Amino acid sequence: MTNPDRRPDEVTLSSGDEPRGVQVMTPREVPLGGPRAMHVRRTLPQRSRSLIGAWCFIDHYGPDDVEETGGMSVAPHPHTGLQTVSWLFEGEVEHRDSAGNHAMVRPGELNLMTGGRGISHSEVSPPSTSVLHGVQLWVALPDASRHTPPTFDHYVPPAVRGPRWEARVFLGSALGSTSPVPTHSPLLGAEIMLATGGSLTVDVDDSFEHGVLLDVGLISVDGEELKPGELAYLAPGRSVIEVAAGEEARLVLVGGPPFGEEIVMWWNFVGRSHEEIVGYRAEWQDQITRDGEIVSDSREVSDGRFGVVADQPLPPIPAPALPNVRLKLRR
């Protein structure tokens, strides 16, 4: 998914002092298009925190009535230096990318796209989808892997169950389940469902920091109450996370060791300097421009760093204007 901010911040990300206890972060709403467009609730990045492990972007959306919002229609757009993790609760989204991958994103199925040195892709909900509900997550690639060729992975994790809970581990290991999908840094990603009154103790790697995003219901995380849409941050040093449900709930658990690298994230690019981001933007604009105008059909995009999304006529998304000045360091 693209970052739809018209004036996206240039964000320099780095590790900082970790809070004690549980830090609860509230989302902000971001529209994906015009006045009738679907909205996403964004909890990462924000001023108080930019990264959880290598996780650098968390959007949460729905349940949205497609008749009212028009659904998801995200035209071809570029990415560098990151992986996109698509995870749905309801509905379907059609994915096409410039590496030649064509796949349907369905509930309970992981679609992971590695942008690496550069890729472009589109995401469109088909006419058969009436409700859209899910999360879109980004993972920053470490310096040693960020120029890797683009790839795509699909995985259907099995359900693991216990008393009054069910989980699907789509990245990493937890609750006796391990995902075979390779990652470029240690990661954890899982969907967990709890029945009313249910509780769960999750054994975790104490070198990881973790985030718990609540989709629906009411839960407490290590005793801290969480409302739908909120994200709980837990610093390294815990070997278990205690989750209890006051009512039927669904949550997404993410984690990883502190990233340990400074990165610059602007629009859909992750890089290591302002100048690098400027270069990525210029290359994308060059690919989608003809005679000073943005092409009206993505099949007319010229080949280059970001490639061409085959069989996708939607016009490509032009990059926003760059800021006139550098923004201050965010930690």
UniProtKB/TrEMBL annotation:
Cofactor binding, per record: Binds 1 Fe cation per subunit.
A Pfam match: Pirin
Molecular function terms, GO-annotated: metal ion binding
Domain Pirin N-terminal: 39-139
Region of interest called Disordered, as start-end residue ranges on this chain: 1-23
Keywords associated with the record: Iron, Metal-binding
Keyword Metal-binding: yes
Keyword Iron: yes
Obligatory cofactor(s): Fe cation
Binding site for Fe cation: 77, 79, 121, 123
Annotated ranges, domain Pirin C-terminal: 191-286
Sections of the chain in a coiled coil: none
UniProt similarity note: Belongs to the pirin family.
Name of this chain's protein: Pirin family protein
Native source species: Nocardioides seonyuensis
Lineage: Bacteria, Bacillati, Actinomycetota, Actinomycetes, Propionibacteriales
